[in-house]
Amino acid sequence: MTDDELFDQVGRALEGRPGWRYEPSSTPGGPPSWCLDQGAQVVLSVNAYQGVVIVYVPETDREVPVGGVDELLTWLDAYGDRYLVD
């Protein structure tokens, strides 16, 4: 599976979740992301790179490789709520 195909799978999994949106790259040639936007700031972003889904947490400048889409959804179910703003 290519990174584009994996990224498309990520999009299908996230597009119906509240707060998630597709964000084209602001850098020419850079990859797009799926972003969790809370209060006008991105609190999580998700990309696919070399066959792995990666969650980026801007608050801690940390990348979390989660494997595939199923692992992403498991990670979000376990940790994603801490990034939601009421």
Describe the secondary structure blueprint for this structure.
Blueprint: H1 3-14, E1 20-23, E2 33-38, E3 41-49, E4 52-57, E5 62-67, H2 69-79
Antiparallel strand pairs: 1-2, 2-3, 3-4, 4-5
What do you see in this structure?
Helix content is 27%, strand content 36%. With 86 residues, it is of the alpha+beta class. A 5-stranded antiparallel beta sheet has the order 1-2-3-4-5. The longest helix has 12 residues. It is globular, with a radius of gyration of 12 Å.
List descriptors.
86 residues; alpha+beta; five-stranded antiparallel beta sheet; globular
Please provide a brief summary of the model.
Helices cover 27% and strands 36% of the residues. By secondary structure, the chain is of the alpha+beta class.
Q: Give the structural class.
A: alpha+beta
CA(first)-CA(last) distance: 37 Å
Total of DSSP H or I helical runs spanning 4+ residues: 2
Residue share in helices? 25-40%
**Order of strands, widest sheet:** 1-2-3-4-5
- Could you give the order of the helices and strands? HEEEEEH
Q: Give start-end ranges of low-pLDDT stretches.
A: none
What value does the Rg take, in angstroms? Answer: 12 Å
User: Percent of residues in beta strands?
Assistant: 35-45%
Number of strands: 5
Average of per-residue pLDDT values = 90
The assembly state of the depicted protein chains is single chain
* Mass-distribution shape: globular
Largest sheet descriptor:
5 strands, antiparallel
